[in-house]
Amino acid sequence: MPLTLGTAGHIDHGKTWLVRALTGKDTDRLPEEQRRGISIDLGYAPLELPDGQQLSVVDVPGHERFVRTMVAGATGIDLFLLVLDAGEGARPQTHEHLAILRLLGIDRGLVAVTKADAVDEETLELAVDEARELVPHAEVVAVSAKTGAGIDELRAALARASNKSEASRSDAPARLWIDRSFTLRGIGTVVTGTLWSGSIGEGDELRLEPAGREVRVRSVQVHDREVGRAEAGQRVAVSLPGLERRQLGRGDALVAPGAYPVSYRLDVSLEELEPIPDGARAQAHLGTAHVPARVVRIGDRSAQLRLASPVVAARGDRVVLRRETTLGGGVVLDPAPPRHRDKTRVELLEKGEIAATVHGPVRAESLRHLLEGEPVALERAGPWVFSQAWLGELEAELSQRLEQADPLDPGISPPAEPWATEIVPLLPFERRGSKLYLPGAVASLGAREAEAQALESELGAAGPRATKVEDVELARHLEAAGRIVRLGDGYAVGVAAYEAAKQLVLSECAAAGEITLARFRDLAGVGRRDAQLLLERFDADGMTRRIGDRRVVRRAARDAGASVN
Ligand SMILES: Nc1nc2c(ncn2[C@@H]2O[C@H](COP(=O)(O)OP(=O)(O)OP(=O)(O)O)[C@@H](O)[C@H]2O)c(=O)[nH]1
Ligand SMILES: [Mg+2]
Which of 94, 296, 422, 543 is the most buried (most CB within 10 A)? Predict the structure, then answer.
């Protein structure tokens, strides 16, 4: 597994010279860097160790104004090389770079106390002691880039440190944080970066995020050599035909399609170098990206970062928070959380109890970035996952509503949420039309039977005269039960009166071929309005057809009538 080594240290302490002494390459390639004698951008060089191991070296600038470039360079490295000027000792960016390395979780590396040629022995010893105190777990080597003294010892120490390190990111889908992009004649746009995880090969279809652009890899190089496929941990150059250089740059990521969420929020466990108040604004650095963020505190040790623009993140990613100085950082607990301030949720996430954070339905794909494999201890329906307890609560709530439903129509409208189509069928209810019912539930009058009987006798007494019924539900139910007949405008008649009126129409039409409103009114002995309501009902029943002010019996009804008679 190839490892990446990143320099760190205060401005002018001799990082670039040391990289040149180790690799033979001057990484200060920009004219401005050469003119000013300082590093401004990241520099890259391959380094072959005595035991044949290959390292990729990233040289970072030490200037306090370029710390954000240092973060972009340090992100994704496996080993650090902290460079300390023997004459100067630790200075502000020595400390800040060290803090950033710690926040990024890069704890393996060594310290080179350089410019040994420029100081006396005593000063050198003091500097070496200071270095040991500063980074107690690291090997300290005194060197001079100018004379070459100690360089071989440094190489041997690097080989030892590399042998102890291993990158363990190769299982996850491909993600490459871009740190440079340029155009090569005849090839087009090329991006470089450290491949954090997965592999990238010729012909791969990837996505450029957060823009969400589909890209196809034409070729892949590792240290200027074409390879079929580059592996996690390597510094990679990828050529992407069809893309303009200005469409991408440092801070973008090339990822396997669909493998990582692109998110405006990150739940993080927080580590503070200085107190970060709720609502604080800072730059959030993640991978090679940095975006303005607001820190929404959730309890003592965690926060939700609300970002001004989206980032591609995964659980376990490190974030550094900076203003003019480095404020702190964190580890991503949830790369795509809902907007919340829920302390319990964060505590569960921290413990890795991802399933426990799920109650109501969420899309399974939104959990994929939190879980390895399929969610266990969760229910699943279509694209949704949810807890058994939540399903139980839903069932209880719907059952209660069904029990309280109108006995005349004991159904309720099912939930209208997007998950309803997949989840409601899991519950022991019956779907009839647009409503849900308890299994086998039938309409009943229950306590309203007395009311129903009163209405029935009222209608019976009224004969063919229509009666207004205010209780529409009751009327509908009694009609469905064959106990009354509803007319228009909320009126109704008894069944016997309806049948009698029907016979009047049928026999008049059998004799005269037709019936008018006036004639029917006289025959039935009712007012004009009631006659009209009855005739309209016969029309609606399909028994009669209206022609101007007359009505004739439809053939089907005549035949049916004949067969009944
Ligand atoms: N005597 C002596 N001088 C050195 C040595 N290494 C570097 N220098 C001097 O220190 C200056 C800065 O060295 P660089 O390697 O550019 O320092 P740096 O840490 O890369 O600086 P930034 O990238 O700007 O942070 C050089 O121009 C040299 O003059 C050394 O081993 N011995
Ligand atoms: Mg430099």
Answer: 94
